[in-house]
Design brief:
This protein is α/β, with parallel strands linked by helices and 324 residues long. The chain has nine helices and eight strands. The protein has a single domain (6-318), classed as Rossmann fold (3-Layer(aba) Sandwich). The N and C termini lie far apart (58 Å).
């Protein structure tokens, strides 16, 4: 039996005792309602923050992409911006489910965070989420003062499906924007939709995210599209050379653990600067379960400390050049 943290074990026991069907046995609407209701019991309050405001990002297709801007400073200076893509299997989750997490990231990093409410499947199947993520990145890079201050760099970040999107936009846009991607933060990312072995089997049931849930997400998101498309499975890209520095975080009891490990390994093999952390005895989705699983707060802060160093290292050459 794998080692399970005491607070994780208590949370899993609570889930096992709760009545009702599994998420994958219901509709997307029911699953979205369940996730929002769960947030009140499992996630910490947002707390005070100087700036929390909603904006609308225009998309090339003509629709508006809702987003929320977070900053710990009322008048932040020029600096990098974290662009956050929420998790939820491309089917559930939104700005509200990740509100407290994004506020904590802004508070600890001292950087502006933009949380992107991309379109969800099955109403908007693949590649709608990718298109919205790319549109948000391009808009932030090309719109002066989009967040109330000059943007000197972008840091795509996200958990689970959001980690997938962060990896995809990094592969697609690195080196192509007028504002550089200085780092990427992949939190228990789903980067290989072809994965069926290893941790997908070992932790496929009883650890919150299930193998059945992953199939349900994939069916709603991908439909008849090819799961080997690198915009769905960025781990299948021919090369990861030249990618921006990466902070990759995985959980020891996660069905997606092995693909996160493998992606970090491929980045390292390609010569990319990588900071890799794995939380032993921890489950998928923990960053939005910090009230139910208190030990998660330390995991989050360890990631943020590593990410802060990556961002500082990326900015160092530009600062040195400016000082000459």
């Amino acid at each position: 039996m794998p080692s399970v943290r005491p607070d994780v074990a208590a949370f899993l026991a609570m889930l096992a005792a709760a009545p009702g069907p599994k998420m994958e046995e219901g509709t997307p609407e029911a699953a979205r309602t369940m996730m929002l209701a769960m947030r009140a019991m499992t996630e910490r309050p947002r707390g005070d923050l100087a700036v929390v405001r909603d904006v609308a990002i225009p998309a090339p297709e003509g629709h508006a992409i809702p987003a929320r801007v977070y900053s710990a400073a009322a008048t932040p200076p020029a600096g990098p911006v974290v662009v956050y893509f929420h998790g939820g299997g491309w089917v559930i989750g939104n700005i509200e489910t990740h509100d407290s997490l994004c506020a904590e990231i802004a508070r600890v990093l001292g950087l502006t965070v933009v949380s992107v409410d991309y379109r969800l499947a099955p109403e908007h199947p693949f590649p709608a989420a990718v298109d919205d993520a790319l549109a948000a990145m391009r808009w932030l890079a090309s719109t002066p003062n989009a967040v109330g201050h000059a943007i000197t760099g972008l840091v795509p970040a996200g958990d689970s499906a959001g980690g997938n999107l962060a990896a995809v936009v990094s592969q697609t846009l690195h080196g192509e924007l007028v504002v550089p991607i200085v780092a990427q933060w992949l939190i228990y990312p789903g980067v290989d939709m072809t994965a069926t072995e290893g941790s997908m089997v070992e932790f496929g049931d009883g650890y919150l995210l299930t193998a059945g849930g992953m199939r349900w997400f994939s069916e709603h998101y991908m439909g008849a599209s090819d799961v080997r498309d690198v915009r769905a499975s960025p781990a299948l890209a021919a090369s990861l050379a030249g990618q921006p520095p990466a902070m990759v975080f995985t959980c020891g009891l996660d069905p997606l653990r092995d693909q996160g490990r493998a992606y970090a390994g491929r980045l390292i093999a390609a010569g990319v600067d990588v900071s890799f952390l794995e939380a032993a005895g921890q489950i998928h989705g923990c960053f939005t379960l910090r009230q139910a699983i208190p030990s998660t707060q330390a995991d989050l802060h360890a990631c943020l400390a590593a990410l802060k160093l990556l961002i500082a290292d990326a900015a160092a050459p530009a600062l040195a050049q400016a000082a000459e």
